[in-house]
Design brief:
Blueprint (H helix, E strand, L loop, with lengths): L1 E6 L7 H12 L5 E4 L17 H12 L2 E5 L9 H10 L12 E7 L7 H13 L3 E2 L6 E2 L17 H16 L1
Parallel strand pairs: 1-2, 1-3, 3-4, 4-5, 4-6
Helix pairs in contact: 1-5
The chain binds flavin mononucleotide.
């Protein structure tokens, strides 16, 4: 089973990158993660045809995937622009939405106590419009996350059960 993974932060030491890697580490056997590169042009209808190669690569990763996992920070009470931009690309051209009917799970990490709840809520609106099959529960708000990762950059052992449960549920959801 192949999951297309979007991490909504570009920075090297991203908590969300660490959370995505931690989910990958505890995912059921046979599950592979393909990380989608968010470095695509700014969406502009004028350059939609021919479809830019980086955007096509991102779209192809979604089309080939059994499911989509988005692990994102919250920026100004919504999702980061880089994430929305690549999603806009994949939804286009009109009538060829790459996300159509794809199973989606959402997670997020932050150093604060809100744990990306507002961004995730916004993302659920977008995903509904894009006709994705959205996992409702369990939600994954990795709050106060700075201290939850070890030296290896992965979640500490006490969080493995929570993360494993999240992935097992997603895999079962994809299979339904
Ligand atoms: C532009 C910007 C806006 C932010 N807005 C929020 C916010 O609305 N809510 C929040 O909890 N944290 C906010 N933060 C803090 C991020 O949650 C924090 O930097 C987080 O670690 C970023 O994720 P990353 O570690 O994966 O890069 C913001 C950070 C930036 C850079």
């Amino acid at each position: 089973m192949n999951i297309a993974v979007f991490v909504g932060s570009l920075r090297d030491d991203s908590l969300n990158k660490k959370l995505a890697k931690s989910l990958e580490a505890v995912a059921p056997e046979g599950v592979t993660f393909e990380y989608v590169d968010l470095n695509v042009p700014l969406y502009n209808t004028d350059i939609e045809s021919p479809y830019p190669e980086p955007a096509q690569k991102a779209k192809d990763a979604v089309l080939a995937a059994d499911g989509v996992l988005i692990v994102t920070p919250e920026y100004n009470r919504s999702i980061p622009g880089v994430l929305k931009n690549v999603m806009d690309w994949i939804s286009r051209p009109y009538g060829a939405n790459g996300f159509d009917a794809k199973p989606l799970a959402i997670a997020g990490a932050s150093g604060g106590p809100i744990g990306t709840a507002v961004a995730q809520s916004d993302l659920r609106h977008i995903a509904g419009y894009l006709n994705m099959r959205l996992v409702g529960q369990p939600e994954l708000y990795f709050t106060l996350a700075t201290d939850k990762f070890g030296e290896d950059g992965l979640a500490k052992p006490e969080y493995h059960e929570q993360l494993r449960g999240f992935m097992e549920n997603f895999v079962a959801f994809i299979g339904k």
